[in-house]
Every structure is written in C-alpha cells, then in structure tokens.
Amino acid sequence: MLLGTQRINAAGHLEIGGCDAVELARKFGTPLYAMDEASIRERCRAYRRAFERNHANSEVLFAGKAFLTTAMCRLIDQEGLGLDVASAGELHTALTAGFPPDRVCMHGNFKSLRELEMALDNGVGRTIVDSIAELNALNSLAAERGGTANILLRVTPAVDPHTHKYIQTGKIDTKFGLGIDTGQALQGVKIALECANVRLRGLHCHVGSQLLDTEAFELAANMMPQFIRQATASTGCPIDELNLGGGLGIRYLERHDPPSIDAFAETLFARLTENFGEIKQPLPKIMIEPGRSIVGEAGTTLYTVGPIKRIPNVRTYISVDGGLSDNPRPALYEAEYSAMIANRAEQIPDVTVTVAGKHCETDNLIMDIALASPQTGDILAVQCTGAYNYAMASNYNRFTKPAVILVHDGDAEVIVRRETLDDLTAHDVIPDRLRD
Ligand SMILES: Cc1ncc(COP(=O)(O)O)c(C=O)c1O
C-alpha cells in the first residue's frame, strides 16, 4: 500500500515527497518521523472544498492534538483552516507560530484558570465550554477583564460509535461535555444565556475517532438539530453555530476503507439539511475539526531493524530502534499498522514477523505482519503514523524523542529537532543534600 506521494523509486527504495526514505534515514538518523507536506495540504484543501461546496457558511479547523508543531501551524494557517487546541501548550505553540488567535478554538474537559485566562487574554475565537463550573469561571474571568467570551457549549448526544472504546467520546458515559439525555445540556444553555460576560455562539459535539463509516456522524446530525429545536423553543435564543468535532478514519491497513472527504461531506450535509428542514430552521454555521484524517496518512516512521529472534514454530521477532515511546498507540488501543522494508520496497513480502520495540514492556509495534525477508540493518517504514504518534511520544526509558522532518518536492527539512541526551537531563534538579 502506497499513500500520499509515496512511490517506489528506480533504486527499489520507498520514496516520500520525492525523497528516498533510505537516504532520509542515513541523513537524519532513526527513528525518524517523516511528514509529507503535499499530502497534508491536499487533505486540508479537500476538506475546505467539500465543506464550502455543500454549505458556504462552514469552517474547517485542524485538531492540533493529532500533530502540532510551529511549522504545522504555519501550514494550517496558509491553507486557511482554523485550529483547535486543547491545552496551554498547544495554544502557546499556535501563538508562537503566529497563528491568528481569532481562528483558534480552545478545548478541554478541565481547563485550568490559567488556560482560560490565556484564551481570553489572547483573543481566542471560541472557547468550547465543557461544564457549568467552567462556564461560571469563564464568565467571572471575562467580567474581571470587562470583556465577553465567545463560547460553544460541548454537549454529548449519546451516540455510540463502532470504534475502540477509548476513543468513543460522544457516549453518555464520558467525562466530556453536558449530556443531552440527562438534561444537563439544556441547563447549560440556559445558564450560558444568563451569563453577562459570555456569548453563547453555538454548540459542539464530537462522537468518536477513527470512524470508518458515516453512521455515527449521521446520528449526531439527527440528534443535534433535535436538541437545537428543544433549546431554541425553551429559551427563544437562536443557535448560530454547530461544531461536529472530528473523527473521520484513515487507512491504517489495506482493508480499512473510510469514506472520502467528499463522500463524508455529502452525506453529512444531506442529513443536516433534511433535519434542519424538518425543524424549520436554517442550517447554522457548520464547523468540523478533523485531526487524524488530515495528518495521519501523511506520516511515516522510519526505524532501523536490529536483532532478529527466531523462535522455531512460534514466532520471529524483529526489533527496531524505537517503539512505545514514539508510538504508544498499539499498546493503548491495539492499533494496527502497515509497514514495508524501505530499502527493498519492490520485493514481495514473504516472511511473517512481529515488530518489537526496544522498551522494557511488552512493546510490540506490529503483530504478525508479512515483510520482505527483513534483515538486521534494514530500514523499516511504518505507515500512517502522522496522527497521535509524535503528539503522544514520551521519554519512557529515557529515550530521546525522534526528529520530525517535512518532506516536499525532493527536499527534507527538520521541523522538530531530535532530542539530545542533555535535553533529557536539562530539567532534572539534584537537591544540595544529595550532592555529596
Ligand atoms: C473534541 C475533539 N475534536 C476533534 C478531535 C479530532 O479527532 P480526529 O483526529 O479523530 O479527527 C478529537 C479527538 O479526540 C476531539 O476530542
């Protein structure tokens, strides 16, 4: 399976963004995250085209939690998308990159007072309020500043998507948002309307992640207009904006077949138009905040293959020079990946192996994958690692985080430098009493 600008070059090597993957590994070292700029831009444009074609009053925001660096913020800004951030650190990254704050949405189920202040003081476009306590806190902070906070209220429409249980967030049993079924969402709308320093612009919901069909989105597109009808009937106040979150899935494996962005948008707007028609209300501004489906397929992680352990009649392990610390998703969600030997990319995979990371845990990156006779020293390219890989990387076992490079038209540039061993100890402090 080849994704984005990936192809096999004359040397029989995997090429990404016009760059030979084996050459990238030699030049920048491994493990290495390579992000394909053309693929990211193409997905941003596909989203904007599809949404604007279906509804002029729509906005696409990139969910920064999937992959955020200052260079990524520049790309997203250039492509005209908004940005969804979920922490002080993500907001700081956006501001440092010069991303326009009025196109930023601030998320989080527990924003600290400092984070709320940061959002207010920097003129963040929308704060997505997750609870009534947060609503009151934001109202007081805005009042202290003599200003108004523009908010969306996050509600949970009790949609139960077919995805891994850890990435279902629109169900009733979730820490996020105010439940529609429990009456808390309506209560939240009423309280928001009473807050003098808060302006309720609309509603937000997010039903889940890595969704490979449109069913859960369609359920949300059925339930949200019903709730809007209920909310406007009981308060008399219009809801002008509806943010439907992210969640569209990607092709981690050949058998994964997510809807195209076009097909997804068509189906979503068909449902929304029908349902808003039924409640006799105009379609509000529709916002969407995809993460994975913008950056996931654009990322490839390159590793060097180390020791190979053959256990006769049981399994063959090939160890690579990364693992849990650069990609915790297999351990977290039993996530599956495709991979190939980058230096023999044209060779038919003929041996089934398990790719093991080098951490002191059951650190299996890929179980039972067919690869082309892997050997020590080969470069293994794991595909679809652009979302929630660098973003979730850790220093477990005191591993240094890999570099991130952006590949484009045959050029490769570092956008996050590889951590050094000294970076690892830079924040450590030895109390004086332990010095002797
Ligand atoms: C509120 C919200 N919006 C957007 C996203 C992005 O989802 P995805 O990367 O699946 O598109 C998430 C992911 O968990 C989320 O929680």
How would you describe the overall organization of this protein?
The protein folds into 2 domains: 7-36 and 296-425, Lyase, Ornithine Decarboxylase, Chain A, domain 1, CATH 2.40.37; 107-290, TIM Barrel. The protein has 12 helices and 21 strands. It has helices at residues 21-28, 37-54, 70-78, 88-96, 113-121, 132-144, 184-194, 215-235, 261-278, 292-295, 329-333, 421-425, and strands spanning 7-8, 14-16, 19-20, 32-36, 58-63, 82-85, 104-106, 126-129, 149-156, 178-179, 198-204, 241-243, 285-288, 299-311, 315-320, 339-341, 351-356, 364-371, 379-383, 403-408, 411-416. Strands 4, 14, 15, 16, 17, 18, 19, 20 and 21 form a 9-stranded mixed beta sheet that branches. Strands 5-6-7-8-9-11-12-13 form an 8-stranded parallel beta barrel, surrounded by 6 helices. A 3-stranded antiparallel beta sheet has the order 1-2-3. Helix 2 (37-54) runs parallel beside helix 9 (261-278), helix 7 (184-194) crosses helix 8 and helix 8 packs parallel to helix 9. The radius of gyration is 23 Å and the shape is globular. The mean pLDDT is 96. Bound molecules: pyridoxal-5'-phosphate. Pyridoxal-5'-phosphate (PLP) binds next to helix 10. Pyridoxal-5'-phosphate binds at residues 63, 65-66, 84, 107, 169, 206, 209, 245-248, 289-293, 387.
